[in-house]
Amino acid sequence: MALNHEAIGRKIGPLVRKYSWRDVILYALAVGAGTDEMEYCYEKQLKVLPTFSLATTFDFFWHLAREANIDLSGILHGEQELIFCNPLPVAGEMITEGRVVNYYDKGEKRGALVVGECETCSASGDPLFRSVYSLFARNDGGFGGPQSVSGPKFVFPDTDPTFVIEALPFVNQHLLYRLTGDYFEVHVDAEFAENSGFARPIMHGACTMGYGCRALVGKLMPGAPERMRRLACRFSHFLYPGVPIQTLIWPQEPGKALWRVINAESGAVLIDNGICEYK
């Protein structure tokens, strides 16, 4: 099995997703919201968490994986960037179109990165957000392609974070989150997870990102998720359901913060290189 290099540049979509306020609330519950954040859990004056955008466009993830011909037993979410143009409606229809951008070779037995990007608008044509996906294909490296383009080194401040937000995903959090649209077997099937190198099913990286998003909104723009303009991160390590996490936040200049999520028991960095920009 090898990556399909003819797919680079290939168009994906349009992909259509209809949703209602029930989907918005289900997503919020799946990333840990509860009675202390009723703006996400009650249809009266309902607000939409920015990372709900991932749940409504996750079909793009799988179209990208299939076009690239990734070995699914080794696929993980590598990096994610979301750039928001307008607030997300609490119900409606989203239309997503994108393309396969490129592949980057990390080396044999080290995997590859498959990058795709897409734009999502409402049924009336209003732009909502742009997404850049990087999929880590653990079993597809060594094809002799270019290495990923290195940007400026990401450096966190040499100080303690201003905010530390603790959370405890339930032991069945992954079972709830998968109902938002990500049904990949590694998050539910014990045999598949074991064959992929894990002791048991793992949390969705996008679910952990949703926890981070809630923490960022709660501390930087409480009650106003529509102020989010950009959210980006790299998924660094897997997490088993039921393990406590911490979101660490370093506010920078007005409207920008750096963030990461760690395993509160081991200290392992789960999400790194986090950037949050807001209005």
CATH superfamily: Hotdog Thioesterase
Which residues form runs of ≥5 with pLDDT under 50? none
Number of domains: 1
Our measurement of the CA-to-CA distance between the termini, rounded to an integer number of angstroms, reads: 45 Å
The major sheet is characterized as: 10 strands, antiparallel
Strand order of the largest sheet: 1-3-4-5-2-7-10-9-8-6
| Count of individual beta strands | 10
At CATH's second level, what is the architecture? Roll
Q: Tell me, what is the CATH class?
A: Alpha Beta
Assign a percent range to the helix content: 10-25%
Shape: globular
Structural class: alpha+beta
Backbone CA Rg: 18 Å
**Roughly what fraction of the amino acids lie in strands?**
25-35%
* Fold-level CATH name: Thiol Ester Dehydrase, Chain A
What is the H/E order? EHHHEEEEEHHHEEEE
Quickly count the helices.
6
Overall pLDDT level: 94
